Amino acid sequence: MSTATITPSAQATPPVYVVGTARLLAGDTPAVPARDQRWLVEAARAAGLLGRGGAAFPVAAKLASVGRGATVLVNGSESEPASWKDRVLMRCVPGLVLDGALLVAGALHSREVVLAVADASSVAALQAASHQRGAGGRVRVVHTENGFVGGEVQALVNGLDQRPAVPNGRRVLPTVRGVGGRPTFASNVETFAQLALLAAHGPEGFASVGTAAEPGTTLVSVHTPDHGTSVVEVPHGTTLASLVGTSRPLLIGGYHGSWTAATDLRIERPALRAAGIGWGAGVVATLPETTCPIGEIARVAAWLAGESVGQCGPCVFGLAAIAGDLTALARGQRADTAGLRRRLGLVPGRGACSHPDGAARFVASGLQAYAEDLSRHERGGGCGRPVLSALPLGGPR
Amino acid sequence: MKHLQVDWTRCDGHGLCARLLSERITLDEWGFPIIDGRDLTVRELSSARLAVRSCPRLALTLEPTVTPASR
Q1: Of A193, A198, A301, A388, which has the maximum CB count within 10 A?
Q2: Whether B7 and A313 lie within 8 Å, measured CB to CB
Q3: What fold does the segment set A217-285 form as a domain?
Q4: Which of B9, B28, B32 faces A352 most closely, judged by CB atoms?
């Protein structure tokens, strides 16, 4: 089933599919009743709702930690180039996203709701939905143009407050000091849409799909050689094999995520975390057999190095060195792989944000999943396959 | 208990800290500190304080260790 309403944009919204019961993409937005903060906290706890931006922070804990009058910030940056799910929600069901934001704003008695969005189509769709609801007075849709790291919530808050859109040296939670210096409940677009569904269906109705450990559904941005890019809504517990097959290593979580050769994984954040895998923002990708995987990893690594905002030495120099090592290796030049491995161990935990950690995880897990290809390259001469640039990088969307 | 912490947005890799507290701080190939972030011993505290005071970028700080229970 496809529910995509395609609006003009730099790149058309990818096709949208649903496995099982459609919730987010059901087409008609359910009526979302007002709920108080206590009800929302309890319902989010009962539903085991985890933030959908990548960190999978428990939503109940974040909701409980903000006081009356906190600002609501919807992070629609979606700066991960392989992720499309937030754009799909904002463009196809903007009313659900907005209802979720207004639901939280009502529960918190917020004075202001800010939606930070990076693409014009989503801005237009959200503004229209806001206008339709007569909510224009307290809803502000802001068009932000930040890079990969600029989507990190502290960087986003800094950008919204007219400071450079970079992470702080000392971590300050938005719930303590967010937009305009005020306590802010900030979360990803999909989190707000899920909260709207939770308020509409109640915790029991919400849990009629999904698993006991993680009720409900999630959106996945899927990239496969055979079917290209699509966004799929699946109930938690769906096997990854049913989405992308089992024949190739799998990238889970995007460019801060990890590659794995495991074939028996299910889409359920707690179980994946127990297996050492972060679901991130829900990106799943496989590479075609015809491309050089080391070259693909090198290409993304070079992009990640370029996305460093340049604040922290180990990130600036470390990611550039790692990308250089990988590029040489991909070209079949004599490369210092011992040095590469050492450098991959040197960058994590040494930055103001998790960009170096995520980038190193992407590269290290990729080299492990493609160990055979790596050793072919280490012996010199490469693998003879071209780099097809199979993974999307940046560009206007 | 206290441990050392770096504000990476401030650190420019001057390297004084590694000279003053070599038992806890070494430098990577780019000149940035690699910090043993475990709790400092009482004997190490005075040279740790000197390293903190000497950082030209005020990037190095002594922080109280927060146990997971008190977080």
Answers
A1: A193
A2: no
A3: Ubiquitin-like (UB roll) (3.10.20)
A4: B9
Distant-in-sequence, close-in-space partners of A315: CB < 8 Å, separation ≥ 6: A308, A347, A350, A351, A355, A356, B8
Pairing of strands A258-260, A250-252: antiparallel
The minimal CB distance from B32 to the residues A170, A313, A352 is found for: A313
Q: Count CB-CB contacts under 10 A for residue A161.
A: 12
The residue type found at A289 is: E
Domain with residue B60: its CATH number is: 3.30.70.20
For the CA atoms of A57, A63, A69, A73, the dihedral, rounded to the nearest 10 degrees, stands at 30
Interval A59-102: pLDDT, tens: 999 999 999 999 999 999 999 999 999 999 999 999 999 999 99
CATH fold for the domain made of A24-206:
Rossmann fold (3.40.50)
Per-residue confidence (pLDDT) for residue A27, from 0 to 100: 82
Report ipTM for this prediction: 0.92
Q: What is the pLDDT of residues A128-164, one digit of tens each?
A: 999 999 988 899 999 998 788 888 899 999 999 999 9
